[in-house]
């Protein structure tokens, strides 16, 4: 239990972020979720409050530096500190499009959220953690950040970039009591993955899902709660000697080529 600790989950309105926020509530954290969509947030907030946890939603677009700075200020104004942060927000813009066909606008939009947005989150979260004398941070990257994938060039570039941010910052702030790690996720059953399957075959997305599963040694897609377990462990004191790590969680998918 992390009773009394405050966690900010950026991208907590859906998928892996939502599962992380809910599990954190069960583990005794006070939870702040951030994202753009108040309707999605309302469902997550209901689930968290049913667990009896203190929780708050702060509407934020992480591509805007002023909104990110305000987000961290608000967490501190509400709860006094921010012990842990999980940056799970991302877009699948440009996924399914080969590199030479990606429009410049799509590149800028996707990078503005998936890479610059995560950098902005880290920047303001770390500034706060320096002020309070420590903290722990997990960025949700992807196995696409370790290797590339067809139709995922700009997504992979952002996810690789996140690993660079994670490892560099982990070294910069290791003596300040701030641990910074990443999760390299394989396939998890979330609205983003469902959308990717739909884009690949709008008439029969479940066929794409079945084909994908066949490549996974465990022969199944992960449940978001399984990613949440790993994130909360990395954030917890149980992982006290771990920083700059990229933890792979993919049902064995990438094990044959690493
Ligand atoms: N699912 C998978 O198979 C898989 C695999 C590898 C890696 N990942 C990574 O896991 C993380 C979570 O993805 P997911 O599958 O859980 O996707 P998801 O269900 O689509 O959730 C994405 C989250 O990002 C938030 N978000 C998007 N743009 C934002 C912005 N500009 N500002 C603030 N929040 C924003 C969304 O909130 P709003 O809509 O409320 O803004 C939502 O909460 C992502 O980093 C993704 O790349 C997922």
Automatic annotation (TrEMBL):
Entry-linked CDD domains: SDR_c (cd05233)
Cytoplasm in keyword set: no
Family: Belongs to the short-chain dehydrogenases/reductases (SDR) family.
Designated name of the protein: NAD(P)-dependent dehydrogenase, short-chain alcohol dehydrogenase family
MF (Gene Ontology): oxidoreductase activity
SUPFAM superfamilies: NAD(P)-binding Rossmann-fold domains
Keyword Oxidoreductase attached: yes
Alphabetic keyword roster: Oxidoreductase
Signal peptide: none
InterPro entries: NAD(P)-bd_dom_sf (IPR036291), Sc_DH/Rdtase_CS (IPR020904), SDR_fam (IPR002347)
Taxonomic superkingdom: Bacteria
């Amino acid at each position: 239990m992390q009773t009394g600790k405050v966690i900010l989950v950026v991208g907590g309105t859906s998928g892996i972020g939502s599962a992380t926020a809910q599990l954190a509530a069960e583990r005794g954290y006070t939870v702040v979720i951030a994202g753009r969509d108040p309707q999605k947030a309302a469902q997550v907030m209901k689930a968290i409050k049913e667990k009896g946890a203190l929780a708050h939603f702060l509407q934020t677009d992480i591509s805007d530096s002023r909104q990110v700075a305000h987000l961290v200020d608000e967490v501190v104004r509400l709860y006094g500190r921010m012990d842990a942060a999980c940056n799970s927000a991302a877009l699948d813009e440009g996924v399914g499009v080969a590199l030479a066909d990606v429009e410049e606008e799509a590149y800028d939009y996707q990078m503005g959220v998936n890479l610059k947005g995560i950098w902005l989150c880290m920047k303001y979260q770390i500034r706060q953690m320096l002020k309070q004398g420590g903290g722990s941070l997990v960025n949700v990257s992807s196995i696409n950040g370790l290797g590339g994938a067809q139709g995922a060039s700009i997504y992979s570039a952002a996810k690789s970039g996140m690993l660079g941010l994670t490892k560099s910052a982990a070294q910069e702030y290791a003596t300040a009591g701030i641990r910074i790690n990443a999760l390299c996720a394989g396939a998890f059953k979330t609205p983003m993955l469902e959308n990717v399957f739909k884009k690949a075959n709008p008439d029969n997305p479940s066929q794409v899902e079945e084909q994908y599963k066949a490549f996974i040694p465990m022969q199944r897609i992960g449940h978001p709660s399984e990613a949440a377990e790993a994130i909360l462990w990395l954030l917890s004191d149980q992982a006290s000697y771990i920083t700059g790590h990229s933890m792979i969680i993919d049902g064995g998918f990438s094990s044959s080529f690493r």
